[in-house]
Amino acid sequence: MRPVQELTPSDDLVGKPPISALVLAQEGQRIATAGRFKMLDNANGWSIPPERVLFAHRYPLVLQSQSHQKRLRETIAEHNVKFVIIDTLAKVFRGDENKSDAAGEAMRVIDSFRAAGGGATVMYIHHTRKPGEDGYGDIDEDIRGSTALPGFYDVHLAFRPVADGIELTTRFRDGAGKRYLVWWDINDEGGNYAKGHAHMHMEYIGEDD
Fold first, then answer.
1. Predicted confidence (pLDDT) per residue in 80-114, tens digit
2. Domains within the chain, CATH numbers bracketed
3. Are 74 and 24 in contact (CB under 8 A)?
4. 98-102 long-range contacts, Cβ below 8 Å, gap at least 24?
5. Which of 58, 48, 71 is nearest to 23 (CA)?
């Protein structure tokens, strides 16, 4: 059995087996992305059968394209996809991300993906600004691009490197959230991802003030 389904830009989503999660990996190497998923699966024993996860590597998607929007909504509905990952937002966004009207339109398109079929969770990955002389600021203010972007999420997960690992700050629409220290134990078996493991550790730090 293949560890995951894979899709290249020349393939078509039509006719694929049922999909639980669709990963639109718009940057990075195809093999490395799928291999990291396999290492996570080996370490954590995820309950979703890996063949139900489809990696679409650099698959054509532009949020401002009506045909691209329609195709993705139809795919989500046809396969009853429950989880969509867009990596990264900048790779599927055309226009000036600093302008609120352009950013707002992109978020409304993402909302249409969420509403497709029986409803799906959509996670999009977006970069933050580099820290200033005083370090990191508020996670919403550090989002790159328009200040309109923070108004559209239900949950914001901000991963930012610190001396001991990565600091994860969670924030919900109502403003409540928490902070964690995250670090990894990774063994890629010399590049043999099928046998590798990636364990994530997380320690509670405090409230998100």
1. 889 999 998 999 998 888 899 999 999 999 999 99
2. 5-207 (3.40.50)
3. no
4. 98/145, 98/146, 99/146, 100/146, 100/147, 100/148, 102/146
5. 58
In the chain, what's the furthest Cα-to-Cα distance? 52
Mean of the per-residue pLDDT values of the chain: 83
User: What tens digit of pLDDT does each residue of 117-163 get?
Assistant: 889 999 999 988 888 788 888 899 899 888 888 888 899 999 999 88
Strands 83-87 and 121-125: parallel
Residue 78, Cβ density class (10 Å: 0-12 exposed, 13-18 middle, ≥19 buried)? middle
- Altogether, the residues listed in the chain come to a count of 209
Bridge partner list, 206: 179
DSSP helix/strand/coil, 54: strand
Query: Both tokens of residue 152?
Result: 């559209």
DSSP 52: G
Cα 37 to Cα 20: distance, rounded to the nearest angstrom: 14
Q: Read off the tokens for 154.
A: 């239900």
